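Q: Got a minute? One more chain.
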Amino acid sequence: MTGAAPSQSVLDCATGTGDLAFTFKQTVESEGRVVGIDFSGPMIALAQQKARKRGADIEFLIGDVLHLPYASAQFDIASIAFGIRNVDAPLAGVREMARVVRPGGKVAILEFGQPDAALFGRFYRWYSNRIIPTIGGWITGKPSSYRYLSTSSAAFPAGERFLELMRESGSFSAIKMTPFTFKIAYAYIGTVK
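A: Always. Here it is, folded:
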């Protein structure tokens, strides 16, 4: 979807423990550059540890999507997976990601949505409000984290509403949206002007 190719440079924002960054590194190969940033120092420490164990040449740094420490037009792709809804100012975050991508490059955003099919939508909301926090709480001892997931996902603009936010950024010559699994998640790809 992003068009990532060997030798390209990728910035993965809100990288967490780096799973998406590792996938990008396989695609851009040894000639390409992958940087993962996250505001959480403990997450970056885990990502760095994983990179050392795998022998992966990926830079993992503490950073904020709203204030990326790079000059303009430095990357071919900037991505964020399931993190834009946690950015204090999503519109500013989208603009900042686009700023560091060269013209013609891509900003790729993967985020939760809310299914709108009547029966499936009701089941999904029940499942995400009741079952996920219960199971997550049993496993981690922190059910509130999993309640936050469903609450923040339900409140965040998805589908056409998120496309409007991307258009409002004024950063893209083209924007594409792909829904997945009854609109539980969406991929948004913007081509930078």
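A: Residues 81 and 95 are 16 Å apart (CA to CA).
Q: Perfect, thanks.
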